Amino acid sequence: MYSKGNTIFWAIIACLLWSTAYASIKIGLQYDTPFHFAGIRFIISGLIILPFTIKPAIYIRMIRDHWKVVAWVTTLQIVINYSLFYQGLNLVPGALGAVVYGLQPLIIAVVAAILNKDDKLTRKKIVTIIFGISGVIFISVGRQAFKLGTGLELLGIAMILVGNIATAGSNVVISLKSKDLNPFVLSSASLFSGGVILYLISIPLEGSPKGPLPGEYWVTLLWLSFMAASAFSIWFKLLQRPGVKVSELNLWKFITPCTGAVLSWLLIPDEHPEWLTISGMIIITASLIMFYRSTKEIPAIQENSILL
Questions:
Q1: Whole-number Å distance between alpha carbons of 172 and 308
Q2: Residue range 93-102: average pLDDT?
Q3: Any residues with CB less than 8 A from the CB of 60 and at least 6 apart, and which?
Q4: Quick check: helix, strand or coil at residue 66?
Q5: 8: nearest Cα among 254, 215, 208
Q6: CA 283/CA 299 separation, integer angstroms
Q7: Which tens digits make up the pLDDT trace of 50-90?
Q8: Alpha carbon of 94 to those of 19, 45, 99, 108, 229: distances in Å?
Q9: Judging by beta carbons within 10 Å of its beta carbon (0-12, 13-18, 19+), is residue 292 exposed, middle or buried?
């Protein structure tokens, strides 16, 4: 059985996993090019999930029967979103990239309202989003990261924003069109195929990384691969649940900058808590609690998945 609390719990777990991506990607891009790094990462991610799916014959049949959904998710979520995200993050400071990416709940709420008549942009959502964005800005200012540059930095910001729009479209497709598709099959197939496409793009555009790569690179690559495999599998499953709305589920992504700041305090010697950052965390936490306490319970459904 699962409830609203169960859905919220797993949404937070997925967002906590994603919050480790920004610093890790910046480390990996010190030694590798964006398309090559992303391609290898997602190929490994798809392979990690594969043993946890279903029998090969059923796996292939599911992909054949739902190839349009797999193609849309692969194109929007992996190829477009992450090619732009990696390129954009390579052009802006990591903290600024995290802030721009933190606007994703707003963009997804707007796109979901346009594409799905049952996912309206209500006043309550708008208020929560405004407070969430305010909290993100407070966190950014507290970490002295909210600095808009010119030229290439602005191009990087635009790339990340367009990637957010692609992610929004992918989330809506999964919610509306993939109810009969095993989420682990969907995540495995889309991550692997998207990774292959990004890798093939990297060959003529970037070539291969030169010289032996340090252990830091391989540890980062393996963590990012595991993180993607876990977070996407959880998220795809949550999007398929009856009663779960795309816009409301994605509100939890506002906690990602909070976690990123805490990780920086723990791991980076020069980073320390600032009152503005803490205030931003309080604003985000309070707005999410108020929103979900006032929403109706998701109907309890018998769930066969051990994980979810």
A1: 20
A2: 68
A3: none
A4: coil
A5: 254
A6: 29
A7: 988 888 889 999 999 999 999 999 999 999 998 888 788 77
A8: 12, 23, 9, 22, 22
A9: middle
8 Å CB contact between 77 and 18: no
Mean pLDDT across the stretch 173-188?
Answer: 91
For residue 66, what are the contacts with CB-CB under 8 A and spacing of at least 6?
177, 178, 180, 181, 186
Collapse the DSSP code of 8 into the 3-class scheme (helix H, G, I; strand E, B; otherwise coil) and give the result.
helix
One-letter amino acid at 83 equals S
Spell out a b/e string for 42-57, using b for 16 or more CB atoms within 10 Å of the CB, else e: bbbbbebbbeebeeee
**Looking at this protein, which amino acid is placed at residue 154?**
L
> Which residues fall within 8 angstroms of residue 177, CB to CB, at 6 or more apart?
66, 68, 69, 72
Residue 105 burial class via C-beta count within 10 angstroms: exposed 0-12, middle 13-18, buried 19 and up: buried
Q: Is the pTM of this model over 0.85?
A: no
Six-digit token string for 107? 């963009």
- In angstroms, rounded to a whole number, what is the distance separating the alpha carbons of residues 231 and 13? 8
Q: Assess contact for 234 and 308: CB atoms under 8 A.
A: yes
**Average pLDDT over every residue of 44-49:** 95
Q: Please choose, from the candidates 229, 219, 102, 107, the residue with its C-alpha nearest in 3D space to the C-alpha of residue 171.
A: 107
Question: Which 3-state string (H, E, C) describes 115-160?
Answer: HCCCCCCCHHHHHHHHHHHHHHHHHHHHCCCCCCCCCHHHHHHHHH
Helix 123-142, helix 255-267: angle, nearest 10: 20
In whole angstroms, what is the distance from residue 12 CA to residue 250 CA? 10
Nearest residue to 4 via CA among 254, 252, 299, 302:
299
Only one residue has tokens 């190829």, namely: 79
Mean pLDDT of all residues in 196-203: 94
- The answer to whether 199 and 43 have CB atoms below 8 angstroms apart is yes
